[in-house]
Every structure is written in structure tokens, then in C-alpha cells.
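Q: What would this complex look like in 3D?
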Amino acid sequence: MMRFPRSSALTLAVAYIGLGLAALALFAAPLWYAWRVTVRDGRYELLQSDAQRLTEVFRRDGEPALVRYMDARVNLQIAGERLLLLVDPSMHPLAGNLHAWPTEIPSQSGAYTLYMPLGGPPEEVVLVHQVLPGGYHLLVGRDIARYVPLEQRFWYALGGAVVILSVFGTVGGILIRRALMARIHGIRRTVSAIIQGDLSHRLVTYRRGDELNTLSRIINQMLDQIEQLVQGVRNVSNAIAHDLRTPLAELRSRLEGLALTRPDTEETFSEIDEAVADVDRVIGIFNALLRLAEIDSGMRRSGFVTVDLGELVANAVEFYQPAAEMRDSQLRFESDGPASIQGDPVLLAQALSNLIDNALKYTPPDGTITVAVRRNSDRSVEIEVADRGPGIPDAEKPKVVERFYRGDTSRGTPGVGLGLSLVDAVARLHASELRLEDNRPGLKARIVLNPGNILPSRAIRPITETDERYQHEPVYP
Amino acid sequence: MKVLLVEDNERVTQFVVKGLQEAGHTADHAGNGRDGMFLAASEPYDVIVMDRMLPGEIDGLAIVEALRKSGKRTPILILSALSEVDERIRGLRAGGDDYLTKPFAFGELLARLDALTRRAQGESAQTRLEVADLRVDLLTRKVTRGNRPITLQPREFKLLEYLMRHADQVVTRTMLLENVWDYHFDPQTNVVDVHISKLRQKIDADFERPLLRTVRNAGYSLTSHD
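A: Here is my prediction, written as C-alpha cells for the whole assembly.
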């Protein structure tokens, strides 16, 4: 069924027709006015010169000559073309084709328009009145009826234009509406499918891009992004489920084993300690995830302060120095001196600590790890942690920052695969990114930070007491 | 010491009260904000453990703020499941002296309470710290054990100073990270243990009586007692 709801296309078409008509009226009105003025003025001029000529005859040759002249004119004239009348001082007609002096004409010279019967219904007539010497009066006039058909044609043409405009406008409007509705229906169908849960649908786009096409393309890009995010969330949920299930399974079997075997006190206590350690692992994963979420929300930017990266990195290197010594690894520190940026010192320290920790984990004994802070010529500051471990294959590099991703080389090492995710999240919070490069051999992790990194991307939301999370009591473990 | 616990979760309350009693302390308990406010204002306590989200109109932070406004200087440890850094800062700004996130280990709570009461007793302008025959001069930054001088790196000195200020108490790894290195996160590997063992090498290795001891499931303690 074809419904006619309030369609924007139809409204637009009607508005355009209205606008067209208004334009036509605006165009016709001055034209009409000019026509009227030109015709009337031209007519007056003609009548005036005619009256002039007759006056000349009267002046030169006197009344009888004018009477003769006018009689000749009347006899020659095609009926109705000229109205002529000469009266003597007592207003008695002497010559001409009018039978009596029209009472509406005043006694002085001038041009007048009036209605008078000319052997039928009254018609519009233009008259020029000339007072002649000796009290004679001359009237030269003409009826306008001759021009009526011309004016009628003008009105017919104008009416025709209005009809054509309305018809074309309506048909055009309907066609445009139909084309537009077809595309909007297409968009609606696609969006409905997406709402049903199938994110793989995309809007139809064409190579020749109009505005709707551009819009479709942008919506498609948005859908791509959403699909990617949903996929990411799904992956993370799966990973969380998997990574939490492992320690929870261990915990469960440990406790169940205790209940079943009822070992002696000593062994029971040691099992309980192990169980607590299992729980701590789960809590650790949760804490890491919460922190990642906190960083991703961008809220931490409200706490940015001036941080001296040189000092921060030096402290971190000093902190890890004994751990490196214990592994017989060398931890070297290179610095260009103080380098201040705007940032979160706690997060930067944690990110750096994760990088050094990773480097220590993967560098074989006797290996060298270099931690460097460099000031570049463009005032940006670079942190670099380079190790001599197995490195990361190029294909895996984009994946290692994903949550819970653990590469083949990291199998058998402690950790849950959130370390580099956190480093990347911290870098992104500081308007940067984690770059992983080949150290030949080994891995070179770099973060380039801008000194005044202004962060326009995410709005910082102030914390208020009315925040949602204060409305709920959290579930305690 | 006498502890007031303001906490509405029964399991947590039971766990903490029992633990405190076993450690030889007395503990009062309030299950909502109103009772907590009343007890905290009227009874003398050495330290208060305050949950943030409490049933009733008054929440933990409001109590802390009210106590501080009325001039009470009792040390307060805020206990909360809100773990974000901003939340910590809010807790400390409201007048809390320490902030512990749930879930927590009891050892961590106890060690922090010990540290808080010690701090309240006054870290007077001490210039010399002594545990048995280990002496630290804070002005000259000289460390001696017996008659033998011990050379320490600046960070090792800071670590030892913190341990000596909390002598005979248990200090946890987290407390050391926060107070010695100012690291408010958990570095995954046992880096603190390595620092401790290095320090132990310097102050204990050549002596008969070890002073720096590892406390299982909790942390470390610098003590002359057995």
C-alpha cells in the first residue's frame, strides 16, 4: 500500500512549486506594469500629436477648414479607430464622430480616461481635450478595446506557465520522492537487519557519490568500527573467561581435594596458602583489567602533571638493577638529561616497569638491556627499551598489545598477557602509541611523547557525587 | 591497640575482628554510618578502619570529613572496593591517612594499622635510629653495625630507614613499594625481594644474629626480638 506520510521529499517539492510560482509572479508583475505604462503613454503621445495637428489646421485656416478636414478624416477613418469632436463655444457639435460633448470632461485642456458608451456597453476610452482660440473645444480620443486581446494573450501565457510549472513540479517531486524513498527504504532494511544483531550488513554505496552516498559510506565506516569493537569485546570476554577459568579450576580442585582427602594439619595449611595464591592471581587479573578500563576511559587525564621522564626512567632502571644483576643481565641506562612532559607519573612508571620486566624476562642470561630517554630535535621525548631476547615476529606485533594475547615465545613464562596492553593503553592516553621494532636480535619498544601533549580526543568527565557508581553497593568478594 | 571497624559486610567484619583479636588487639565494630560516627566521636581509639560505602545516610568519607572538622586526629585507614586512583585521592583528601583496596590480605591491613599507630605516636625529630647493634644516623647518613661501618646506596638507605622506623612491625611489599619507591602499582616480578636480599647481604650477612626477617605471607620485619 502506498502511504502518503509527511514526506520530506514531497514537502520539498511543494515548497519548490510555491517558490517557482512566486518567482513567476515577481517576474510578471514589473513586465505587466511596464507594458501598461508604455502602451498608455504611447497612446497619449499619439493623441496629443493628432490634437496638435488639428489645432494647427484651426489656427492657420480657421474653423471651416478644420470642420472640413475633420469630416474628411471621419469619412476616411475606419470606425472606432479615432474619436473626434469639435464644438463651438456653446458646446454645439460642429464636426467629428461623437454626437455630444461628454459631460465628464472638464473645461480645461488635458488628457482623460473614462468609460463611455460607443453604441454598446460603456468602454474604456482615452481622450485628449484641447481648448482652441475663440472658445472652441477639440476632443481627440481612442478606445482601448483594441489592446484587450493582446493583454488577454499575456494572461493566457502566464496561466500556461503556472500550469506547466505546477505539473512539472508535482511530477518531479513525486519522482524525486520515489527515488529518495527507495534509497531510504534500503537503508532502513539494512539498519533493521543490524538491529536484529547481524553486524555484517552494509549500506549500498555507489561510485558516483552524492550526499546520501557519502552519508552511507560514513555509516558503513562507523559500522566497521562498531563490528571491530564488538569483535574485540567478544575476544576479550572469551579471553577473560579462559584466563580466569584456569586459576579458578585449580582453586576448585585444590579445595575439593582438601575436602576429600582431609590431610593432616601441616599439609592443609600449605594447601590453603596455595589456594590464597590462586585467588590472588584472579584478583591480579581483575586489577589489571580494571586499570586498563580506567586508562581507556581517559579519566586519568584530569590528573596530568609535569613529569620529568629522565628522572622517572632513571628511578625505574635503578629499581630493576638488582633483579637484572641476579640474572647476570646488564641493565644499561642512557639519558639526555631532564625531559619534561605532561603526563600521569604513576601510569608512566607502571608502563615502563612492564617494558623492563618483559625485557628481563625474555633476555637470556648475560644479555644486555638498554633503557634510554632521548630528546628529539622536534622537542618530543622518546623512551626506548631494547633487549636481546627472541623478539616478536612481525606478524605477531599488532597482536601482542591485544588483551590476553600471549605469543608462542611467551609460553612457559609467567604473566597473563596484559602487560603490553597496558603499555599501549598508557601510551595512547598520552596521545602516543607503543611501537615495537626489531632490535636484530631482540625487541625494541619505543614510546614517543610530545612535551605539551594536548589531548583533544576524549572529553574528561568530572567526577561528581551523583555518579552512577555511588548508587550501587559493589559486590564484595 | 584499640581499633574501631566501621564496615557493613558481615564476612569482612568477622574476618578482620577475629584477626585483630588474634594479634592481641581489641576491636569495636559498627555496621552502619550512624553508629560508626557515634563511636568514633565518643570513644578513644588508636586507629579507625572505615569502609566507604555504608548503609544509611552517612557514608565513610562523610564520617572522616566530620571527624577531621571536629578536630579528631585519630588515624583513619579507608577500606574500599573503589580502586581507581581518583578515588584514592578523594579518600586521602577527605582526611584518611591510608587507603586499602578490597579485596585485601589481612597481613597487609595489620601492617598498615601498625604503621599508622606508630606514626600517630609521633615520628619525633629523631636523628638516630637503632635496632640492636644496627645504628643509622639520619644527619650524616652513616650506617654502622657493631663497630663496622656499612656502605649503602641512597635507595638502600631509604629502604633501611623505612624498615628501622617500623622496627618490630611487619611491613608488606606494597608498603615498601609505596613508601620507598613511590610506586603505586604492583610490578609483576619479585623485585622488592631482590632489594631486600641485597640489603640483607650488607647488614646481616657477616653477623651472627639476623635482624631483617621474612614474614611468611606478609612481608618483612626488622627486629631484634626472636
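A: To summarize the key features: DSSP finds eight helices and twelve strands in chain B. The two ends of chain B are 21 Å apart (CA to CA).
Q: Very helpful, thank you.
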